[in-house]
Amino acid sequence: MNNQTQRSGMYWASIAAIVLSVLAIIFTFTRTSSVPQDGQSVTQGETLSRVLREKKVRVGVVPYAPIVAVDPATKKVSGYAIDTMDAIGKAGGFTVEYEVVDWSTMNASLASGKIDAVVSAIFKNPVRAKEFAFTTPTMYFGLSAVARRDDQTIQTVADLKKPGLKVAVLAGEAGEEYVKRFMPQAEVTVLTGSDLTVPMMEVVSGRAQLAFGDLATTRRFAVNNNTVRDVFSSDPLNVSSAGFMLRRDDAAWVEFLNVGIESLLLSGELDELEEKYNQDGIWMPVKKPWK
Prior knowledge:
2 domains, globular, two-stranded parallel ribbon, 13 strands, D-Maltodextrin-Binding Protein, domain 2, alpha+beta, 22% strand
């Protein structure tokens, strides 16, 4: 091999080494990048490593007492989901910071990396599962609806198929998904916010004939508002499991939270939280495997 050939081979070998080094740096930077600023994309899959390294995590919560309650004076959060997440954080050696979101903003906050989980009673359904992952269920809810007491035209599931029904739902909530799927001929008003009773006030005012909500909310609302009735209280439209919502591809983070929830269930700590927060039977609890 002559000198020119040798020099050419060394040149291309050097170029190859430089390219590989640059690619390695890019890969390392991508894998170890921290939480991005709002509006930037988020790197998937490294949440657990970052949380354990920084010993803190920021999660979103949707107010729905007693699962999540916000003190109006201090803005401090409390409730079943808060105690559950705090217990998992304590076991994992990290602190938990909470940010209040609502049903219409939680998806964007999670996807952007502003938060690393939505720690509330988030209903698991195929629509949400297209974009996000979920922990093992922490509770179960039935779905019902309220109608005016002086309107007896809606009695059964078959009545929901009537064309032109005026329905109020909350954006991002399970009732909206039910209406989209099973009531294509309804006239739907979609409202925003975190107060699950807002659509039901549309029924009270006469602007809507029907408003959907989880069974606990519809029951309480009907008790406190004698102008409406809980249509499906004795036979819920369907039962949904609820848990924490996370970014898809965060498999290690999901598994960590699943282990934390299971540990609390098997140790009896979730039973204690049930006794503290679910005295009115707002949700159906997760049972131990041997019960």
